[in-house]
Every structure is written in structure tokens, then in C-alpha cells.
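Thanks for the sequence, V.! I ran Nudix hydrolase right away. Repeating your input here for the record:
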Amino acid sequence: MDSVSLSEVTVMRKTHLGFMHSFRQPFSGVTISPKFCHSKVVGSRAISSSVSSTKSQYVYGESLAATADSDYKMNGLTLKNRISSVKERLLLDAFDDEYGGVVVDHGKLPSSPTVFTSMLQSSLSDWRRKGKKGVWLKLPVEQSELVPVAVKEGFEYHHAEKGYVMLTYWIPEEEPCMLPANASHQVGVGGFVLNQYKEVLVVQEKYCTSSNTGLWKLPTGFINESEEIFSGAVREVKEETGVDTDFLEVIAFRHAHNVAFEKSDLFFICMLKPLSAKIITDNLEIKAAKWMPLVEFVEQPMIKGDKMFKRVIEICEARLRHRYCGLSPHRLVSAFDGRPSSLYYNVVDDDDDDDPSHSNCRAEFY
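Predicted structure:
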């Protein structure tokens, strides 16, 4: 016969008054077996003496007892089932994930750190008994006082956003942790915009290192969450310069490591077609912006002395002469997840296909 511990009774008394009120009702008019233990209730505590093989527990002044070899029925339900139901109330609400782990429902967390401690400990024991593996615990910023409790129980930081911190716990001690790590990369874009006069759209940033002071560079920025590379490039150019553009293709991308906050960095150089010419600078980030002759742009000492950027400019110039073809996005739906996504690739010229839309390599830039 399962029993409820005194600590569990204390938690129930503090947090489940409504539940226990309804729990007491079935005892009205129930004849207590002689095998039940004799008890005396003093205040909120129950003093009991065992009789025979009876196990007895008291919940908020009510006596719950059963013999070891039988289950008493009340209103059609066995006492054992009722005890089991009570114990379930002491566990955190969670659901199984597809990898043998559990995800705690952050919308149903207790507000009290004391209650959370007891429920978390009971839940970990329950998950370990059931053979669960990883545990994902999302704690909203409004309940940040629960974070030290989780860390003390062995949870580790996984990642954080403005409104929450995500913690994880790997249960099997004999197995290596298989939970995926936090996002390892940040994604940036740079817009190469060239007009019909072979002038490139460039900016000077307000905040930069002393070595880059006075440098005219391409408009750049980070991709927002759930934003496409092509739309991010168009947005960044618009925000910094006020110029409207059409995305044409990804010319090249750079992969670097330990860039910011020890994260890796993917930077995509995108070729864009200008739809307007008037410049309206973003005064928060940009000191100045202008259309600059391409030949003048590449002759800047910083550009000329940088092997990587020099190669990028060479690629862009080769693209203008149709000697190079970048990658353009194509929206496709995968059968694996049923979601549309962008696949970037180029289409080589087909001598038997006269439709220029079938090849991004034939696109004109101004």
C-alpha cells in the first residue's frame, strides 16, 4: 500500500486546500474499520498509534487508513487509488517529448519556492523511476526566484531570452548527455547595392573601432528571429540608408568563430538591385551614407589591404560580367516536416531554355 509522507502532507495542506476540502467529503457517514488505528488530532498535527499491520496517514485532520492486504472502497473508489491521485498532485505538470524526456509546463508552476522544491524533488524521483532522460524546465522572469532552487537540484542553464530562462537536467548517470546545446551561431548580412552608374551604396557607422574610423562600408546587420536571409538584407539596407531594393542572390558567405560572446558567425554577402536612389540615413547607427564609385570604394586602404574583402569585391565584379553566379532562394516544402523553407542554389544556363527566369545567372543588376 502506497503512503503519503509527512512532508507531502504539509505541501498538500499549504497548496491544495480546495482539493483536500473535496477529498474529505467521502468520509461522511463512512464506518471506520476496527483495524484502523486510534488517533488524536492536536491542532494541525495528527498523533497516531498503529494497530496490527495497519498503515495510517492523516491529511488535514482526516484519517486515511487501509490494511496491507486489502483496499477499502469509498464511493466506488479504492482508497489506494485516492492516495495515488493525491500523490499525482505533488508532481509538476509535464508532458513527454519525442526523445524519451519530459517538458515541464511552465504555465502551471507553483508560486512558492518551498512548494516548488518539494514538487521538483518528487518529480525527479518519479521521472527517474519511469526511465525518463532529459528534462526541460522553462522558468518565466516573473518566477525567477525558482531558478536557484532548480540549480541547487542539479539543473543547468541552457539559454535565456528576455522573458525566460531555460534549464535542463539529464537523468541517466551512466549515459552521456544527449540534449542539444544552445544555438551556436549568429547570422549577419551585408548588402552590395550597385546602381546604373556603377556606384555602390556605402555607409559610415557612428560606433566603430578606431581602426575603422572614416571607413566607407556596405550596409550590414543581423538577421532577426524567424527572418529570411533575403528579407533581412533588404530590411537592413532600408533601415540604414532609406533605399528600397530587390534581393538578387547570395554572392558569398563567411564562417568565423569566437566572434561575439564566444559564438560562431555566419555572414552572407547579398547582391541587391536598387529600386530608389534617395538616401535617408538612420541617425541612431549611421553617421553618413552615399553612392560611391566602385573604383573609389575598392581603393580604400582598409578594403585594399583586406584579403577576404578584396576577394568579395572580385567576386561581385565577376558577377557583373556574368562570369560568376551566386545563390538565389527557392521556396520548397519538405516532406519531413511539411513546412515551407528556402533552399539557396543557382541554376546554370540551359541553351535549350529561352526563359531567363529559369536561371538567376542571367539577372541584370541595374
